[in-house]
Structure formats: structure tokens, C-alpha cells
Write the C-alpha cells for this entry.
Amino acid sequence: MIKWLSLLLFLFFLMSGCKQKSGNQADQLIGDTAHFYPVQFYLEEQIRENDLRNLPRTMRYSLNGKKTETLLSRDSFLLFTQSFLDLLRNFSKNKYRFKETVMHDLSTQSYTLSYRPLQANSDEIDYLDVLLNEKTQLVKRIDIRRSQQAEGKTINEHFSWRTDKGFLITRATDLKESTQTEAIDVSWEPHNRQPL
């Protein structure tokens, strides 16, 4: 009797383990197995370090060629960096939709990890490039491009993060008869770091 009960339990567990996965489960498995460079973690660390050290930040703003320069407050800095984090969180969540390629550049002694969407999708970024130092494998720069359609306008955005130096956000908005260009260039100087 115990043998039959054990056999029935074994068959029950075997049958429950052999159920087919639905399409959504298969997509999730693909996403979980995509091991790309942890760009989101890298950027969160950069922002945290900058915020903790309270580095002096300068913002250069340009709209259609008219330029201004000002000091950037901590709150404004965190607001601008949120744009980067939103893009990278979305990328990390949907990384299974991207293909990674690696290019080794001997002239700059660096590697470029490029991520391109497998299929064109208006919700996705156009591409993400991560430039790594050949010897240290540390990030030198991150570049993200995104195009959007909004209210009959095409908006092309470029987000560039320079390790321990600053970031640049540019937007070119194609209007009916002209293009509006906006650039936000934020920089900080590591040699001005405040002691902890």
C-alpha cells in the first residue's frame, strides 16, 4: 500500500513539473537570461557619489544657439539625472528585446558595447552604447539615442554620460518649417571635491 501511495505521489509531482510554459513565461525566461553590462547600477553609483560629495556643478544651457551658464543646485541635478535613470530602468526591464555587440577599438584602447533593439518599437530607445576602458573595464561614457513622435513633431534626443565629469542632453525638435535645438551640458570637477 505504501509503495502504491509513493508511486502515485511521484507521478503527481512528475506530471505537475511537465506542464508547458505559456508564451509570457517563455518571454520572461529570455529576459532573465540576458546578461548585459549593468548600466543602471553604474549610473546609480555615479549619481550617489556626486550627491554625497556635493561636487560643484555647472550647467551650460543652449536654445537655438543662445547660451547661458549657471551653477546647478542639487535638486536640479537629481531631476536631470532622473531622465537617464528612467531610460536605463526601462532598458534593464526590457533588455531581452535588445541585441548586444562588442567592438574593440585599438586606437582608443577601449571596448564599445552596443545595444540595438531586435525590432523597431516606438517605446524603445534607438540604441545604447557603453564605452569601456580596455585595461580597467570601467565605463568611460554612456550614449543613448531616442526618437519620438509627439503632436506631429519628431523629437531626437541624445543622452551622454561622461564618467566623473558630467553629462549632456540634446534635443532636436523638427517643427513644420524649422528645427529647435536645445542642449543641457552639466559638468563637475573632481579636483574640487569636498572632504568627507
Q: What stands out?
A: The CA atoms of residues 20 and 85 lie 36 Å apart.
